[in-house]
Amino acid sequence: MKAKSFYKNNKHNNMNPKEKENNQEEELKTQATPNECDEETVGQEASQENEAPLTEEEKLVQELEKANEQIEEQKDKYLRLSAEFDNYRKRTMKEKAELILNGGEKSISSILPIVDDFERALKNMETATDVAAVKEGVELIYNKFMSVLGQNGVKVVETKEQPLDTDYHEAIAVIPAPNEELKGKILDCVQTGYILNDKVIRHAKVVVGE
């Protein structure tokens, strides 16, 4: 062993300075390697310690944190939906108010031409001498007006010789029927009734035979 050590020292002494420096660096690296291995071993052991099973308390804390996150998400969704619904409610209320105020605009616009016809007829009556022509003109305006009402969903309640139906008729008088077939049926209409889109807006006032 002494001979080997002597040989090694003698060899080291016979090296030039650059070889000595390289040899020293290799020895330092060799000495450092075990330390690095030790550091990696310590890191692995620490990691294994960190991955140790959670206690019941730690599990409960994690579950509580997840539950709180879910609650916050649901709360945010609720606030968004509430705001959207409030905006929808305000918008529909505004649209409903506008519909109530201007819902009859279409019907009124369709009637205006008939008003123009009446104005022209009244002006012509001032100088007209032919009563039959005036009557015919008024009948034309009336028929046009009824046509416009029909286009807007208005219908006349049928009364002539119809059985009395309290859903559509209002009997204001009862008179003896001229024959057996007209008993319980309408003999005369005092005031015309109207239906708007299958809804009675005014009952027909009628006279019924008995």
UniProtKB/TrEMBL annotation:
InterPro entries assigned to the protein according to its UniProt record, in alphabetical order: GrpE (IPR000740), GrpE_CC (IPR013805), GrpE_head (IPR009012)
Compartments it resides in: Cytoplasm
UniProt region (Disordered), positions on chain: 1-58
Any one cellular-component term (Gene Ontology): cytoplasm
Domain of life: Bacteria
One example GO MF annotation: adenyl-nucleotide exchange factor activity
Pfam families, per the entry: GrpE
HAMAP family on file: GrpE
Subunit (UniProt): Homodimer.
Protein name listed in UniProt: Protein GrpE
